[in-house]
């Protein structure tokens, strides 16, 4: 049986075809980037927030500071060098981010659910996500849940503003912001500033009506919504046997 983590990882990996550098977080982004390196993007360079560039780990890291990332890496940079030269220098093709909430413009919340001063849930926070959002050429987001609590009309708190919100505050980011959101129902996409996320693809069995009901704003739908090909046997074998045989993140 194929799990949702496997489906999300495979579909996200395909979106990295033709990309050269990816700033990957731990979890599903690492799975997707590692699988893409074995399939559609053999020259992909994976960069981690700990300063590791061009990682070649013998097995999946459990944190961004896992020592397994260091051995065989192309470079290990200081934080000022990573964020000042690599990110702000415009050398990242795709930033992979996650979030608790996302809105129609691709703004992200990973700080609190509820009121800032008395939150229902306090979340881990952004880390370097704001820099990744502002400086990557584009950002992909993988969301395990597609429901109105995660896809909201208005964020409880804006942790990582996309280019539209940044421009409204007088800041001009260099990247396009969120361009792809991969969910359990399908793929949402936008071209850049001024555009809303719209439904462009569905997993087999999912419907436009389901996606609309699961989204907390009036979801736009592309005129030619495609059906996503399910993970192939070859992709699943690589993911299960080569990328994550110990099921660190696959569940």
Automatic annotation (TrEMBL):
GO terms for molecular function: transferase activity. It comes from Amycolatopsis thermalba. Belongs to the 3-oxoacid CoA-transferase subunit B family. Keywords: Transferase. Gene3D superfamilies: Glutaconate Coenzyme A-transferase. Pfam families: CoA_trans (PF01144). This is 3-oxoadipate--succinyl-CoA transferase subunit B. It comes from the Bacteria.
């Amino acid at each position: 049986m194929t799990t949702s983590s496997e489906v999300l990882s495979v579909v996200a990996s395909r979106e990295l075809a033709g990309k050269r550098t990816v700033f990957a977080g731990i979890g599903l982004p690492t799975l997707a980037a590692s699988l893409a390196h074995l399939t559609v993007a053999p020259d992909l360079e994976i960069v981690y927030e700990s300063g590791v560039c061009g990682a070649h780990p013998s097995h999946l890291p459990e944190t961004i500071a896992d020592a397994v990332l260091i051995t065989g890496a192309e470079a290990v940079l200081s934080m000022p060098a990573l964020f000042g030269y690599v990110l702000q220098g415009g050398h990242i093709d795709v930033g992979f981010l996650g979030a608790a909430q996302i809105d129609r413009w691709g703004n992200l919340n990973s700080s609190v659910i509820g009121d800032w001063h008395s939150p229902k849930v306090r979340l881990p926070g952004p880390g370097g996500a704001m820099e990744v959002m502002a400086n990557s050429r584009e950002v992909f987001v993988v969301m395990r849940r597609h429901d109105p609590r995660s896809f909201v009309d208005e964020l409880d708190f804006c942790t990582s503003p996309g280019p539209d919100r940044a421009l409204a505050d007088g800041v001009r980011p260099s990247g396009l912001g969120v361009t792809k959101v991969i969910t359990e129902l399908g793929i949402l996409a936008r071209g850049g500033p001024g555009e809303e996320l719209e439904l462009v693809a569905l997993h087999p069995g999912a419907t436009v009506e389901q996606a609309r009901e699961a989204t907390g704003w009036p979801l736009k739908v592309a005129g030619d919504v495609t059906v996503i090909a399910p993970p192939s046997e070859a992709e699943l074998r690589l993911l299960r046997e080569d990328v994550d045989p110990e099921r660190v993140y696959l569940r």
